[in-house]
Amino acid sequence: MTDASGQLRSLLPRESLLWVFAAQFVVLLPHFVHLPSWLIFAWFLAVLWRVEVFRGRRAVPGRAIKLLAVCLAVTGLALTYRRWFALEPMVALLAISFTLKNIELLSRRDAVLSLMLAYFLAATLFVFEQTIPYALYGVLCLVVITAALVALQGSGSARAGRALGLSVKILAQSVPVMLILFVVMPRLGPLWAVPNNSAAASTGISDSMSPGDFSQLSKSDKPALRISFDGSVPPPEQRYWRGLVYTHFDGRRWSEPGVTGNRWFGRRFGNGQSGQDGDDRLPAVGPRYRYQVIQEASHNPWLFALATSDSDTRGVRSTGDDTLVYHMPVGSRLAYDVRSWPRESTPVASRLSPAEQRRHLQLPDSGNPQARAWAEARRREGMDSQAISQALLALYNRSFTYTLKPPALGTDTVDEFLFDTQQGFCEHFANSYVFTMRAAGVPARVVAGYQGGEWVEQQEYLLVRQYDAHAWAEIWLPERGWVRVDPTAAVAPERIRDGLQSAVAEEFMQDALLPLHKIGFVNRLRLQWDMINYRWYQTVVSFDADRQQGLLKRWLGEISPLRIALFLGVPVAVGLLGLLIWLNLSARGPALPPASRVYLRFCQRMARAGLPRRPGEAPGDFARRIECELPALGPMAARITAAYERAAYGDSTDALKQLRRLVRGFWPLRQLAKLGTAPAPRQSVGQ
Amino acid sequence: MQQRWLRWLDRRLPPAPTVTLNHRKLFVLPAAAGMGFLLLIVLLWLLGTNYENNLVLALVFMLVGVFVILPVHTFANLSGLKLLLQEIEPTFAGDFGRAKIAVEKTGKRTHERVRLCWPPQEGALVDITDNEPAEVTLELPLVRRGKVRAPRLRVESHFPAGLFKCWSWVDLDVEFLVYPQPKSAGPLPWGTSVGEGDQEKTHTVGGDDFAGLKSYQAGDSLRHVAWKQFAGGRDLYSKEYASGSDARLWLDWDLLAGRELETRLSNLCAWVLEAERAQVAYGLRIPGQTVAPAVGPAHRQKVLTLLALFPVQGVSS
Fold it and tell me: CA-to-CA distance for B54 and A212, rounded, in angstroms?
């Protein structure tokens, strides 16, 4: 329709311009962190230019300048981002379209377009972060953008208070719709592959381990995992959250070849156990532990679970090394359900395949001669694998110290640690242990993950922080299979039992700016905040198709089309009914005084008796007409009219009472029937 | 189709000089921006679904809620608005007809950004936030003389967010009286009346011989008042001038013989205006009607109305 587009084509009211800029700023502010700085600069420049135009100091840019701006922007984007199919370039593209539109923000249509972009950009914020603060900020964005939309109407609605007030009102009223849709709307799952947040650096356990890595992690108290158990809970000394297995040693660094990047997915897992095949190795007896792990974004694909685990969560697979991996790097919080069996109950292959054997005995050709000699000596003494392990652990126990600040090591890390410094952190112990065991001919590997965790809110969930990162070892024993050996436990059993803080006491979190962990009250607050976050994540962020079904089942008893229709239909019907009542009430004029209402009832009854009051007819005239045409009712009508006139103009309550009484007893149809006068149509009576 | 629509509108919104808008008279639909908003909702839903991101989905559902709630607000902004036709000024063809309309609220609700217009005219934008009624003057270009019924008036608002439009087509029973468009046909036709035998006499123009006194009548030129006699205590007289002729001006249909009907009316109209400017008494003679000479607003309106309502087919004499 011409009028509609006319409204859009009209010039932007001056006062609305600032609102559009405000909305853009609010939306862009959190994106400033990852947007290139030239883009932010360009945005400010464009806003400044438009304000100058607004103040009449500069002309609206011509076509040549606009073209130049577009070329510059595209070049800038191309130079900044190598990959286009990723999240950041897309957000940057949205931001740049904002910026370019700003210099020609003239009509209302331009402004509406800009605000639609703002809504979109506000939503992309959640793709980066889904925490409570971000959610609150998102609400703020919504309020400001909607207020800007209101302010586009100009005049009084562009006043700050009015625009914000209306915006909050509209949004508050749409909350019920949002809640219902949130619960009921089916979650379809991804329709096509989407780019992920690629630039973020990975955190937590990395794909390799060299001396010093874990002591670095111990300085961070950021949450890594939150684990809630369904049923029994493993005792503290069993809480080893395996993440990654390192089998390759290059003399200094333990790593897992092909663990990162896309090769991970193409890689053949050890003895071919993965996915569905993995179920074969699991025993028929039920799992010992069922739990859900919520993992913070690590930007690595590996997940964390107890030994011998399986998961039904979509995108999670088991590997041949008895670990779980996700089908892509974990870019945002991820929840997965895990079942774990005790190792003793799993069937064991009696021998490792030759390839596996080679893989788990690999050592560099040279280096660390002392350790190799020590291992060789034990072997020659006729000790079996278990005895050698015991001897090594006894060695640790005798004279080693567990410390966060071990002395630096040279080239032969194992020799220096074992026979010289004898001070180290978990990675030193795991490193030397696995090396020595391999030198003694025992298949062994380093396992990295987390150990321990802190209960939050009466054992609702276990909070595992980055400083719980741990490295330990596993050795292959014939008939028993892979057995966990934690050399750290031989030195500092309290690390395993009570966590890092009690094991290293004053060394713990020494570099923290504020030693907040030493204040009990603050610690409690932090745990409470973590719990709020956890519940937020549990109820809102990870609300998926399964939970949706569970919730609906709990509310509706069963999920049938009828019940869903009822669940949806009842609120809609209530809403429509309310709307209808409101429409009828609002269509009515201001309320009539009581006397007039009673008198109108009298008129209605007269109309039913065949003698309606004419529009605009004075009550006195009407009474006289009744007297003429229906003499039987005349006296009564005269009394009622007199009472009405007294009640309406004399304002006396007695008259009103009298009027009510009179009208209550006034039934013209009945009276006429009693008198035998047929309630004839008006015309015949008149004649 | 158009006909049926108009008939339906006539039933639903009968013409009346006072109209209060309510749910029977208002229509609500998404505006162009609203369709854009729907597209945004779809795109955001795809984003949220593909990323399996519940917060994005919550935002989408919030926007859906806004889309559900807004039409109610937009409707409420117009509902209860009362339009009263105040005054219609007569006008000349080729000019704008002006109708003065009062707009006020009937309930407590305010009405903002309400546009009243006869499309495609711009119309007027009113805000009614207090109890004072607003008065707007709407203009409609008129080309034909006669009684012209204005089309239905569009009352429209996109308040509060511009995503929905609420409108009504109101018929305030506006009827313009449109005089013919004045077209000059030369100087005033003094004494050139081509009277037939039934007319009194033929007169020559601009006589300056004093012919006598006649008693003053309203509308006589003040220049011709016999002030000397009045000062002498006698009644008010007008001096009559003639050069052996009647000095009264007759605007005669037959003077313009040979021209088209509408042109004749336009010419007569131009003479009327000129005579009024000069404050000379003038009479009108058109087929079927004769108006005795006089001058003044009432006379002017009477004459012009006759010209405006002159039948299009003419009158057979």
Answer: 39
